[in-house]
Write a structure and sequence with these properties.
The complex is a heterodimer of chains A (about 350) and B (about 110). Chain A is an alpha/beta fold. Chain A has two domains: about 210 residues, 3-Layer(bba) Sandwich (FAD/NAD(P)-binding domain), CATH 3.50.50; about 120 residues, FAD/NAD(P)-binding domain (3-Layer(bba) Sandwich), CATH 3.50.50.60. The longest helix of chain A has 19 residues. The two termini of chain A are about 40 Å apart. Chain B has about 110 residues and is of the alpha+beta class. Chain B has one domain: Beta-grasp domain (Ubiquitin-like (UB roll), Roll). Chain B contains two helices and five strands; from the N terminus they run ββαβαββ. The longest helix of chain B is centred in the first third of the chain and has 7 residues. Chain B is globular, with a radius of gyration of 12 Å. The chains are: A alpha/beta (about 350), B alpha+beta (about 110).
Chain lengths: ~350, ~110
């Protein structure tokens, strides 16, 4: 059981800065995120795209912003629980009990939901029968590549994941790479490599094809792919891999009894608390009149939510407003040595 | 104001006046048309505002940027007439555009 003052759900920029604001006022927190790294949409959707509207930073990428925020909260030694999605929420006396899908348990005074548009999950094939084979011969991510040795693998997609795995697995497996168009979104060097391997007969490349159906008993043994012009080909496949990026799903938070409208959690603008006492929501996931989906708004919301958390964590103390420029306490928490 | 028609999978038809300069995605979101999620808010980075444009409109629309085609690779059941509605800026020349909303966005 992890006992701390606040649990932040979501390690995007808003969640990270909220951790900073909690640290400054002397509260402890831990952060869970469904991705394998911090940064949220900034890192998952646009790590290399420049952002031009962070105050006092004329230009930075999603990755730079994330790295700077991580540096900024370093003094607080915040624990990250990655690859974890919150599943269960219970109120026990005055505190909250939270459990993740990886069985991590938390005992906290309050919760800040900074979940963006939800947790990221792989996008799946539109073909219905695929569900039946998911996890046994059809995958959206690779955990153990040894199972593919000497097998026939059909990989779908045109991004870096599809290209990189096609190249890698072509060393030990028979690989079909199927993509909906001639162009690829993955790195040019990988595209050239795939074309070269195709010329050498080490990869079978099918462009302008998409998955039409899968067949097999317990496991897949063949797939049918359909060309833009309607022609259908059947190809033998022991395994099917789909790499279509990630989609965001709100998930279990929907069933927590929060006031939710159009996939957004309603909050007040005084401290960004939801309709449930002790649960706050900040960043893209919250809604209130005038809400702007900007990172800078998320920072503001996090600063106020952090102060809102104080009374739950330290009900007998009063929070004094202080500036980091002059507050000895805040500077001590930041690990700054005074002369 | 240009009229944009949104058709859902279950054949519900919404014809909306959308102001010049807004995107087809924004027209849908502001009018609560179901089936267009626009998770990333118009940043061409999520493919959840995917629509199929009616055949006769394919060549009349501004051509896709590379980034749009890359994102469409991620969309649910992309076809030749697939577009991201956040990249279609409404103007008088788009008056009468019909877009079909897919059964799912992901």
């Amino acid at each position: 059981m992890n006992k701390t003052d606040v649990l932040i759900i979501g390690a995007g920029p808003t969640g990270l800065f909220c951790a900073h604001q909690l640290g400054i006022i002397g509260l402890s927190c831990e952060i869970v995120d469904s991705l394998d790294k911090a940064g949220g949409q900034c890192i998952e959707l646009y790590p290399d795209k420049p952002i031009y509207d962070i105050p006092a930073i004329p230009e930075c990428t999603g990755e730079e912003l994330t790295n700077n925020l991580l540096k900024q909260i370093k003094p607080f030694n915040v624990n990250f629980h990655l690859n974890q999605r919150v599943e269960e929420l219970k109120k026990i006396n005055d505190r909250w009990y939270v459990k993740t899908n990886g069985n991590k348990e938390f005992d906290v005074a309050s919760i800040v939901i900074a979940g963006g548009v939800g947790s990221f999950e792989p996008r799946k094939f539109p073909v219905k029968e695929c569900e039946k084979f998911e996890g046994n011969s059809l995958f959206y991510a690779i955990k153990d590549k040894t199972i593919f040795r000497d097998k026939t693998i059909s990989i779908f997609g045109g991004g870096d994941s599809a290209l990189d795995w096609a190249i890698e697995l072509s060393n030990t497996s028979k690989v079909n790479l199927i993509h909906r168009r001639d162009g690829f979104s993955g790195a040019e060097a990988s595209v050239q490599k795939v074309k070269q391997l195709n010329d050498q007969g080490k990869i079978n490349l099918y462009t302008k094809y998409q998955l039409d159906s899968v067949a097999g008993e317990d496991k897949i043994n063949s797939v049918k792919i359909k060309h833009d012009e309607g022609e259908i080909k059947e190809i033998k496949s022991d395994y099917v891999l789909g790499f279509f990026g990630l989609i965001m799903q709100l998930g279990p938070i929907l069933s927590w009894g929060l006031n939710i409208d159009k996939k957004k959690v309603e909050v007040n603008t005084e401290n960004f608390e939801t309709n449930i006492n002790g649960i706050f929501a900040i960043g893209d996931i919250c809604s209130y009149p005038g809400k702007l989906k900007l990172i800078l708004s998320g920072f503001h919301e996090g600063a106020l939510a952090a102060r809102g958390c104080f009374k739950y964590a330290k009900p007998d103390e009063k929070l004094r407003f202080e500036f980091t420029t002059t507050s000895k306490a805040a500077q001590e928490r930041l690990g700054i040595k005074s002369d | 104001m240009p009229k944009i028609t949104y058709k859902t999978e279950d054949d519900k038809i919404y014809t909306i006046d959308v102001q010049n300069g807004l995107t087809v995605m924004e027209g849908a979101i502001q009018n609560d048309i179901p089936g267009i999620d626009a998770d990333c808010g118009g940043g061409m980075s999520c493919a959840t505002c995917h629509v199929y444009v009616n055949e006769e409109w394919i060549d009349k629309l501004p051509v896709k940027e590379d980034g749009e085609e890359d994102m469409l690779d991620m969309a649910f059941e992309p076809k030749k007439n697939s577009r991201l509605s956040c990249q279609l800026i409404v103007s008088d020349t788009l008056n009468g555009l019909v877009v079909n909303i897919p059964s799912k966005q992901g």
